[in-house]
């Protein structure tokens, strides 16, 4: 459920007509609904009731500071994976005590910055990262809170490129060796062991893989307890899927009820790192049809957005719904491939869509709030799109469209 709906035959973002937004700010543009964002965050937070928990929004899904700020005001925590994301969340008003730092390859400067600001916890993914954090914390004279991201070897049953919890994936520490790592950590002078973390993949539509991972994490936590290593939290990562087409993902409330039932009375604080489930359906990408190009084998609608704006279809063959902004077109319904102007055969946003199209029409690509703008690029020297947020009948420009000179900003000619 989101707040992008038709009124008569015109698409609205909350109470603002999408076409009016394009008249003011041009195409292509990303439009987000603040109400949807807040609703999705609350769906996670409210479901925990009195159980101690912290929702740490995964910033990589959409890292615009206005989005982060809306969530920070609700009391959200944040899951970050780089110095850039750390600076973003701090700029947007996040509480350092609610920041967890994941990532397979944290550099020294990144660790130092996070230690200086006093983040809540590092999710360690490599054995030698523990030694690096201990050393750097020692240099600064601070204690680092850590948890290990364990790889529970659970099949998330999702796209192989976004499955992360199998033995052959690069993420986390093999759960077999976790006990040894925890013992090592517990003996270090500048380390405070606070939790366990796992994240098995993205766009999961079933609860069972999460529960399998929880079982393994819980059993590890209990083994640690028996050795006198008491953990404060279990971080179960993100990964809950959304409906793009006909998937029927578990709702956050149902998922969290299942987790709480499995935890049966244990008082570990639960951390979750949802990204897509909070922001995915809170955003659309709007694009204009530049040309219609019927050919002998296919009908192409060439639009002004491309794989550099939204790479998911090209990268994962992801399917995202494409709908007209105005349902007025008198055109005949036909089957179209919606493609961008980039010089790649893989540059498509949707294939074989039944639409009534005319040149100049506006189209909205739904479910674009997550891994849309945050994965965009300047490929083919295309300035990145504007981003806007609607709150009721108010419209805010939250990122200006890039201007051409930004494309070569920082580049230098030879003398
Ligand atoms: C460590 C970690 N946490 C959280 C997320 C967020 O995942 P999702 O957007 O599927 O909720 C990811 C991305 O998959 C991740 O790598
Ligand atoms: N970028 C991916 C998800 C990857 C999640 C990052 N750990 C997507 O668009 O579905």
TrEMBL record:
Record has Lyase as a keyword: yes
PANTHER family listed in its UniProt record: DIAMINOPIMELATE DECARBOXYLASE (PTHR43727), GROUP IV DECARBOXYLASE (PTHR43727:SF2)
Domain Orn/DAP/Arg decarboxylase 2 N-terminal intervals: 36-280
Keywords of this entry: Amino-acid biosynthesis, Decarboxylase, Lyase, Lysine biosynthesis, Pyridoxal phosphate
Biological processes annotated in GO: lysine biosynthetic process via diaminopimelate
Native organism: Crenothrix polyspora
Modified residues (N6-(pyridoxal phosphate)lysine): 60
Protein name according to UniProt: Diaminopimelate decarboxylase
Entry binding sites for substrate: 276, 312, 316, 344, 371
